[in-house]
Write a structure and sequence with these properties.
10% of the residues lie in helices and 47% in strands. It is mostly beta strands and 135 residues long. It has a single domain, classed as Jelly Rolls, CATH 2.60.120.10.
Length: 135
């Protein structure tokens, strides 16, 4: 007999709470690497979009496009109860505070093997700090 299952996570960072062959649902909480003082990189996923939903706290989505003039960095302040879609190939990261809790949804095949990491230089980090402070 089937029953409804429940999942939760209170630790730091991201954990996959549900996964099948098609998709994954994770809970993402604050961790030092997502704090404005700990951020060092952006990432992009090359075969899947990624979805975020803010449940608690504050999160600024940082994203960047490569242009002829270099990396164009922008930011969106997340609002609770809205779904934010990060399209595949878009550089991104989350800047969170200690009380932040989000839901993350993506294709279950998304991994480090099909994603890229871009280490940020000091000028790019200063730009991100300015964007987050302005939100």
């Amino acid at each position: 007999m089937a029953k409804i299952l429940e999942y939760e996570y209170e630790g730091k960072g991201l954990t996959r709470v549900f996964e099948n062959k098609k998709w994954m649902v994770g809970i993402k909480n604050w961790k030092p690497e997502n704090d404005i003082t700990g951020l060092t990189c952006l990432e992009r996923h090359n075969i899947t979009d990624e979805l975020f939903v803010l449940l608690e706290g504050r999160c600024t989505l940082i994203y960047a496009n490569e242009t002829e003039e270099g990396l164009k960095i922008e930011a969106v302040e997340m609002e609770k109860d809205k779904v934010y879609n990060i399209p595949m190939h878009l550089w991104h990261n989350t800047v969170t505070q200690k009380d932040t809790k989000m839901v993350l949804i993506e294709d279950s095949v998304c991994s480090g093997d099909n994603s890229d990491v871009l280490n940020l230089d000091e000028a790019q980090l200063a730009c991100i700090r300015k964007l987050v402070e302005a939100k």
